[in-house]
Structures are given as structure tokens and as C-alpha cells.
Model the fold of this input.
Amino acid sequence: MGTIYPPGKIELLRRARGLSQTALARLAGIDGGTLSRAENGYVPGPAVRAKIAEALELRETVLWPARPDSTTIDAPADDQGVGEAEANRGRLQAF
Done:
């Protein structure tokens, strides 16, 4: 059985950026079911983890810390933070 982390962090960060599950899955280039499982605590493979983190503009360790019980929160991966999220939302309007 795969590693399970406490659920909720990805969903909380996704919603804070104003993204639906479908929109984030598209941004990350992954299947919606894969994102749903990740939001529910299942840890995807390294490539999918990287795609989700990049789409949310975060370091992978923010979403999947070294230990499942860790509560460390890192700063966004870039200095622009919300500005990039706004740009991404604009790109999603094409869908």
C-alpha cells in the first residue's frame, strides 16, 4: 500500500488560488482522478508530484514533506506568488 499523507492541503491551496479541481488538473497536465487521489492523501509518483507543485507554484516539499505528520509550510516557489496564479487563471479561460 502506498504512503498516505493527511488530506486537505492540496485542496486548500488549490481553492486559495481560485482553481477548480478540473482547472488544476489541466494546468498540471494530469488526470482529474489522479489529482483527486492526491487531494485525498495518496502520494503520486515523482513526475506527478512535480507537476502538481509547479501548477500551484510551490515547492514539492510544501505538498509532500519528508514526514507525513510534518506541518512545515514553505514560501511560494517564486517571488511573484499570486501574480503567477492570476496569469495561470487567464490561460485557463481558453478551455
In short: Helices lie at 9-16, 21-28, 32-39, 46-55, 60-63, 82-92. The chain has a mean pLDDT of 77.
